[in-house]
Amino acid sequence: SIMKELCGKAPGYKDSARATLTELLLRVLRHVSRVEEVEVDLPVKGTIGGGNYRALLERYLLKYQYPTDEETLAGILHISRRHLGRLMRRYYGMTYAEKINSLRVEMAKRLLVTTDLPVSEIARKVGFTTPQYFIRVFRKYGGGTPGDYRRAERSGEK
């Protein structure tokens, strides 16, 4: 009903409403799943075909477990790979690969605390090809090894 009301108002309202509702839904989903969001106080002005770059990136990044490469995502958004890199830096302060890995580590943290799965299984579930690479990336974004994180969180330390 909100979309119907906004669609009749003025040209461009539909895309604006869709982007706003998408961002709201993403924030709710992140809150419910306890995924930390990086706040960046930048205007969300870049548009493509009436849509919003940031909303499109957010929608795509929800599927981070099975990402395509930067070139494919740039093609989906109808922008160059270089421009995608600039957008990632502007909106998230990191490269595409860094953002994907940080999202994977956040999901891994939740699994480490809420399940008894072995680290190798968690690495596979969140999209890493080898447990060794997972541990290396986890150290970078998580501050220590997955096993240390699990023990600390379960014992109540932080």
Q: If you had to describe this structure to a student in words, what would you say it looks like?
A:
This protein has 158 residues and is mostly helical. It is 66% helix and 3% strand. A hairpin with a 2-residue loop joins strand 1 (47-48) and strand 2. It is globular and about 55 Å long.
Question: Which key features would you list for this structure?
Answer:
158 residues; mainly alpha
- Separate helix tally: 9
Mean pLDDT: 76
Order of helices and strands: HHEEHHHHHHH
Terminal CA distance reads 45 Å
Query: Which regions have little confidence, pLDDT < 50, spanning 5+ residues?
Result: 35-51
Structural class: mainly alpha
**Tally of DSSP β-strands:** 2
Calculate Rg over CA atoms.
Answer: 18 Å
Helix content: 55-70%
Broad shape: globular
Strand order of the largest sheet: 1-2
Give a short account of the largest sheet.
2 strands, antiparallel
The percentage of residues in β strands lies in under 5%
Describe the SSE topology.
Blueprint: H1 2-7, H2 13-33, E1 47-48, E2 51-52, H3 53-61, H4 70-77, H5 81-92, H6 96-114, H7 119-125, H8 131-142, H9 146-155
Antiparallel strand pairs: 1-2
Helix pairs in contact: 2-3, 4-5, 6-8, 6-9
Structure described in brief:
With 158 residues, the protein is an all-alpha fold. The chain has nine helices and two strands.
